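Report of the visiting student (M.T.), summer placement. My assignment was to run the structure pipeline on a short list of targets and document each run. The first record concerns Phosphatidylinositol N-acetylglucosaminyltransferase subunit A.
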Amino acid sequence: MGMKHQPSKTSSSSSFFRFTTFLTFALLASLLFIKPPALNLQEPFFRSEHPRFYGDLREAQFPWNKLCFGPASEKLKLAVFSKTWPVGAAPGGMERHASTLYSALAGRGHEVRVFTVPSDRLPRPDIHQGSLHVHFAANDHGSVNCSLAFEIFNRENMAGAFDYVHTESVSLPHWRAKMVPKVAVTWHGIWYEIMHSKLFQELLLEPQGVRPTPSADLRDAMPRLVDEIRFFSSYTQHICISNSAGELLVNIYQLPRRNVHVILNGVDHTKFVYDPEVGARFRQRYGVPSNASVVMGVAGRLVRDKGHPLLYEAFSSICERHPGVFLLVAGSGPWGRRYEDLGPSVKVLGALDPSELSEFYNALDVFVNPTLRPQGLDLTLIEAMQCGKPVLTPNFPSITGTIVLNQGFGYTFSPNVGSFVEALESAIRDGPSVLQKKGMACKAYALSMFTATKMASAYERFFLCMKNDKYCKYPLSTDC
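After the run finished, the structure tokens were exported:
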């Protein structure tokens, strides 16, 4: 009887697995393909015009970068927890963001103490440069030792209390954040957005005509989202770096709107500047044909989730129909060798020194970002815009609601090869003259929103507001 009963158990188990798999996909679909009920393009988070705002900044429903804050007479002591700190060549976007923001705040006279590890994961001495102090607290593997970082933080706090504590995403884990009464977190990606990324990668990599088998990541996505929503309330205040993320934290994560703020990333606009002559020299140095009809470029890690399988397939199609189009690939990773297979229409540059990035952007007619990660605010898009270049990028909410507000800034596409090719064709049809005009529009917009000065000024006012309610009023007599 035992043998006869066993197939029934197997069948039952298989049926249950199929049911749970179906349920997971159904829940994912409901989240990913149906708009949250409160998302409305007319809501204030999505307004692109300069707001006329009077009142409490904690009620602002647009990026603080849009406002003009005056100088601060009061100096702050800030504690910062960051995943890594840029050391050595080719640092990633997160490291560059951290260095730019906290160096700018220290330059404004605030004491900033960062608890982190070097990006190269090698033993290094702490950094003390004026008001900026970087404390390295690494474990044996070079990652952050949370206990050691918190121990150093407590020692510095006893020497003189911090006015506020700031963490980049979960660099300060939520169970420790509960111990800190004055803490704000900046989210560079939330799980709701990450689920989009995993879904797009699954759809792109699954062969056509083959019924997809859900990956473990997709099956685990819903429980992880629920867990994240539950622990987000461990942080007192929340800063988002895109308009769409701000709406999601209010509508999906159910956080009080008064505790959710949008401050967009910024880059050093004195380093990323429009300079056609520098761009022309860069083209000559790397052998870009003088008769190239349109020069495109992509920068960053050459890995799957950055969309390089998508770009490879799309540009393979473009090469056949438009032999005069040229692609510059800046970065390192496994897809570098694949691009070399595309022949003379592609030049793989490898990882560029940060000082060369502005030259690289200036050498382009249009900057392409094929990312499959619809989260955060990619610095490469902002850097290219500062250099006067239009962008061609997926139509993710974090991008279209914050960076590429209309067709005057560039081109967007759905994350599939067909849509990508159509967008590339549009840029090619427009040609260098139209692309140059769009690039100037990008430059003007980036200077008004995405500079290190605007970002640091907004964060400065945020921390002052959190310390003392009087700074929450806008405008003050010292504001622009």
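Residues 417-449 form the longest helix (33 residues). The longest strand covers residues 111-116. I thank the supervising group for their guidance throughout the placement.
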